[in-house]
Specification:
single chain; mainly alpha; 2 domains; three-stranded antiparallel sheet
Length: 334
């Protein structure tokens, strides 16, 4: 039997009515959830939301590819482009929840980035492609990307994807204002050490600036032999390994410093070997061995840094952070 209500008692509302009743509070909460931004936009939707970043990325690649094609020292830029896409593919499955709202720092970064890109484009239209103008393009590119990521995912999105986009900047040419002092010091320092080692092994030599005088002639430590390009290439490798293994900031800095030390050391070995070849076979033999030794030291730097990164990753307490754990932390903060 089904009990009936006594006369005068209020008949309880059906369950469906109570679920949508504002008095219970659940209907208001449901409306609030339905009115909030979606937590996911799908693959194509996310690509469209990141359209400003893709356009800035393509623009920078279109400008930088001239240097990658015509400057042998910057041909590793094509590898950097591939590594950028690889890092994006690795980070893509662990996206933070969508925010889809502007903040004052995000708006400021977007406006400043567009202004920098506009001014740099005017400069390039007047003076052509220069390393300094490419640095301006790189700065504007980073600002636009960070503003776009901040709008789509907030700060968690900037943390997760900014490096994947910004990694492209390491393939840009270095302005002479920065590279010239470094090159001068490297040339003089490497020449000094080479002269000391040559005299130690019985090859008489004298240094004059960045020139090394031996019995068969004079060998100059030019910009290519100074190690500046090796420093840029090892910077690229160390930054990539730090991101790939999700090292902490301190370990990434150490990896960069270790890469610089390895680049200087291997370049010192290269110049010493080249001077020894010139002393034994004449100056004409330098052209035969110059490029091959350059490739050799770059490969040696890569494997040395890779071995260091793998060894450090396997050390106790050096396990990389879990992407799922980071995503859960991002959701809790938001």
């Amino acid at each position: 039997m089904v009990p009936t209500n006594r006369p005068g008692e209020a008949v309880p509302a059906p369950a469906a009515d109570r679920a949508h009743s504002p008095a219970g509070g659940e209907g208001v909460a449901g409306d609030r959830v339905r009115g909030s931004p979606p937590t996911e936009a799908g693959f194509l939707g996310t690509l469209l939301l990141l359209a400003p970043s893709w356009l800035a990325f393509a623009w920078l690649v279109a400008k930088a590819q001239w240097f990658w094609t015509h400057n042998p020292e910057l041909q590793f830029g094509w590898a950097v482009l591939a590594l950028c896409l690889y890092l994006l593919g690795q980070a893509w499955p662990n996206q933070p929840i969508l925010q889809l709202r502007w903040s004052f720092p995000g708006v400021l970064a977007a406006l400043l980035g567009c202004f920098v890109l506009f001014v740099t484009q005017l400069y390039q239209a007047a003076y052509g492609l220069t390393p300094a103008s490419m640095s301006g393009l790189g700065g504007g590119f980073l600002l636009v990307v960070c503003a776009n990521l901040n709008y789509v995912w907030g700060w968690p999105g900037v943390r997760r994807f900014a490096f994947c986009f910004g990694f492209l900047v390491v393939s840009l040419p270095i302005p002479s204002l920065i590279s010239a002092p470094i090159v001068d010091r490297l040339q003089v320092g490497i020449a000094s050490v080479d002269v000391a080692l040559l005299n130690l092994v019985g090859i008489p030599s004298i240094r004059t600036g960045n020139l090394i005088a031996i019995a068969s002639g004079t060998v100059g430590i030019d910009e290519a032999c100074s190690g500046i390009r090796s420093l840029q290439a090892t910077l690229m490798i160390s930054l990539f390994l730090g991101q790939l293994y999700l090292f902490s900031a301190a370990r990434r800095i150490f990896l960069v410093l270790a890469g610089f030390a390895l680049a200087v050391f291997f370049n010192l070995v290269r110049t010493f070997v080249l001077v020894c070849i010139a002393s034994d076979s004449g100056l004409g033999a330098l052209e035969k061995w110059h490029d091959s030794t350059g490739v050799t030291i770059l490969v040696a730097c890569f494997f040395a840094l890779w071995g260091l990164g793998v060894w450090w990753r396997r050390r106790p307490g050096a396990a990389p952070a879990s992407p799922d754990h980071e995503r859960l932390s991002d959701k809790k903060r938001s």
